[in-house]
Amino acid sequence: MAAAFPHVLLGPGDDCAAVRPPGGAMLLTVDQVIERRHFVPGTPLDLVARKAVARSISDLAAMGATPWCALATGALPAGFPQADADALCVSIKKWAENWNCPLVGGDLASLPEPTSPLMLTVTAIGVAHASGHVATRGGAKPGDHVYVTGALGGSLDRATGMGRHLTFEPRVREAAWLLDTFGTRVHAMIDLSDGLGRDASRIAEASRVRLELDAEAIPRHGGVDDWRAAAGDGEDYELLVCIDPACAVPALIQSTGTRLTRVGSVAPGAGCVVQDGADVHDVRAVGWDHNGRP
Amino acid sequence: MAAAFPHVLLGPGDDCAAVRPPGGAMLLTVDQVIERRHFVPGTPLDLVARKAVARSISDLAAMGATPWCALATGALPAGFPQADADALCVSIKKWAENWNCPLVGGDLASLPEPTSPLMLTVTAIGVAHASGHVATRGGAKPGDHVYVTGALGGSLDRATGMGRHLTFEPRVREAAWLLDTFGTRVHAMIDLSDGLGRDASRIAEASRVRLELDAEAIPRHGGVDDWRAAAGDGEDYELLVCIDPACAVPALIQSTGTRLTRVGSVAPGAGCVVQDGADVHDVRAVGWDHNGRP
Question: Which of the listed CATH numbers 3.40.50.300, 2.70.98.70, 3.90.650.10, 3.40.50.1970 matches domain A145-282?
């Protein structure tokens, strides 16, 4: 641990881990992955671990941060095989290190019943971009151009429960490239974990602006029929970015091979709409509710 | 938030929180609290929140750290009332601030079934003692004197599920006093969350020494009949400390009113024993297994 990650002073095994703090601001996030909510029973444990880690890493990316270290918990159904518990720990550690975010601590506990859902949480800590700029949800300005990385839709195969929601690549390098290139002119950023409609609306609300998206412009994965299917998919984990209109944003980030597509503009007002020909649709509720709540 | 805790640059509500890093090493820990494992159904939610926060704060204390900030998750059974969810969040925030550990982020999710157990996790981040000394489990040396804070036993009323395991005070100030007073001569420290036998054995293992405890010396709460009941109780959250024998350790920390009791010594060898008259008992397995595993 010490060799690969010199800022980790003391790894797992004591009451706490110890790490050397970064020079700049620290970014902190925690997220949960719950069986029968975020993955179906029978999902390979390595992909469950991957998703748990990647979700939190994606939150770091959404602020333009660089991963620094992570902690994880696992709550295991009663009777969960020890070999599976061990494999899960190995996978969490492996994926955390894959994104340069060494696992420094954690806790495993047993749930009361065999039918209790397997649950993981990952706390991820990152370091702010070297410029000091932190890309929040609250900085979008009327006139900004709105971009997404990659393409949207079809992250979940509803027949099998598998799909890209288990294998997405958190956009850490793309976020770093955006801040490297445009600095504080990256006014607002979020990762799409609940769907374009819901997440764009979060930027609108935090920034007290209106996001106007163009149905035709929304980049779709192959097999995704229309803008509604793309905007309503929950777990793309692509970045939605509001950038000063004076910036010359290319269609491709060369270093990562990632497309950047302009999908709309920021306007005065509130809410988020998609313009489809002559029709304007309020999409504040278009997305995925992990909690199954209205 | 900013006024009370100036190191919190950005609190809950965005993809991540942002905090200014401390000057010294950061201590990090995460712990879980699970219904029907760590508390019984019907436990007041404020006490559930309190226990979740206090357990992680106690881990910071066990390293001699000062609380800095925290993140929490709640996994709520399907149909959990919104008002209860709101009250739980208020309680977590309140207790975190009570121990000067502002809640900077978190995540609430809904569990798939109404019968799924309520679960909380708290990630706590602390700052190392101003001296730079971090009291790990691994520094005990043969000849050290072994102390506990407070008294042990009876933390759980088995009839009601209530008791001190829900209302204990994490020994943050006591740990700070120990490091203020004895510095690096505090060789090893742990909080008693799984019982004196199990936790003392963790110091023995990490330090590659043997802990020899004196049955008569183990301080017991009123109503706790004998050393076995005291050593076998899981959740005292008192500190077990190994200190250089040259230190003049008082029987009371005046500033906090907390007793310090010498319960034994560190010897060469391995394991942990309690000497009761002529009998020597191996107590490595004496304690509380939250996982209900052998």
Answer: 3.90.650.10
Residue A183 has pLDDT above 70, yes or no: yes
For B17, the closest chain A residue by CA position comes to A28
Candidate from B19, B106, B126 with C-beta closest to A30:
B106
User: Which pTM was predicted?
Assistant: 0.93
Q: Of B15, B120, B242, which to mutate for an interface test with A (greatest number of A Cβ within 10 Å)? A: B15
Within 13 A of A65's CA, how many CA atoms are on the CB side?
33
pLDDT at B18: 83
| d(CA B40, nearest CA chain A) in Å | 11
- The per-residue pLDDT for range B203-213, each reduced to its tens digit, is 999 999 999 99
Helices B172-182 and B45-61, interaxial angle, to 10°?
Answer: 10
Q: How many CB atoms lie within 10 A of CB A41?
A: 9
- Please give, rounded to a whole number of angstroms, the shortest distance from the CA of A79 to a CA of chain B: 9
Cβ of A60 and B16 within 8 Å? yes
ipTM higher than 0.85?
A: yes
Triad A168, A47, A13: Cα angle to 5°: 115
- Whether pLDDT at B187 is above 70: yes
Question: Nearest by CB to A75, which of B32, B62, B112?
Answer: B32
> Quick one: tokens of A164?
């890209």
Mean pLDDT of B60-87: 96
Rounded to whole angstroms, the Cα distance separating B131 from B175 reads: 13
H-state helical runs in chain A: 45-61, 82-98, 172-182, 196-207, 227-232
Assign 3-class secondary structure to A241-279.
EEECCCCCCCCEECCCCEEEEEEEEEECCCEEEEEECCE
Q: Model confidence over A259-289: pLDDT tens digits? A: 999 999 999 999 999 999 999 999 988 776 6
CATH class of A8-127: alpha beta
Say how far residue A256 (Cα) sits from the centre of its chain.
17
User: What is the C-alpha to C-alpha distance for residues B219 and B198, in angstroms, rounded to an integer?
Assistant: 17
